Task: structure prediction
Amino acid sequence: MGRHTETKRAPDAHEVGRLTIRAMANRDIRHFSLLFQRIFSQPPWNETWSVAFIRDLAWKIMRRPGYIGTVAEYESRPVGYAIGYELPRVPFVPRLFYLDHLFVDEEYRGIGVGGGLLVKMAHLADIRRMRTMLLMTKKNSPAEALYLDEGFKRLLPFIRIQKKIVLYKKLR
Result:
């Protein structure tokens, strides 16, 4: 007798109170780019990227194999985003998901938006059989604290790329 296996399917949106997390769509690119520029132009990042550059970056990420993107909405207003993609496969290495960007509007930090985005991204990567999530962030930043609180670990203390550290979390 054959064994029936059911594929897990993530819901399109995940609701927690007045916070909804849904898949990122093309219509989200404009707001994504504006919020990204506002957040990453401030300390500790101090990036000087234009909205056009950010928009093009988002489009490139969205076209990558294994792309996953989510939007956090609070009372139907977009307040945070997370985007990433599957890294190219390496023989004998479990499938890896790279969280390229996660950011939350300053007014909505501290109420679980970032953690909710991380949980949703990990779930979506896991159901696609990616086994580890990787990311880079500034050392000793609020972002690093969030990731460590959510179970991420430093890959190796001495791995630093452009003054950033590499963190990882096993998904299964």
Observations:
- The helical segments are 29-40, 51-62, 113-127, 142-149.
- The longest strand covers residues 77-86.
- DSSP finds four helices and nine strands in the chain.
- Residues 14-170 form a domain with the Aminopeptidase fold (CATH 3.40.630.30).
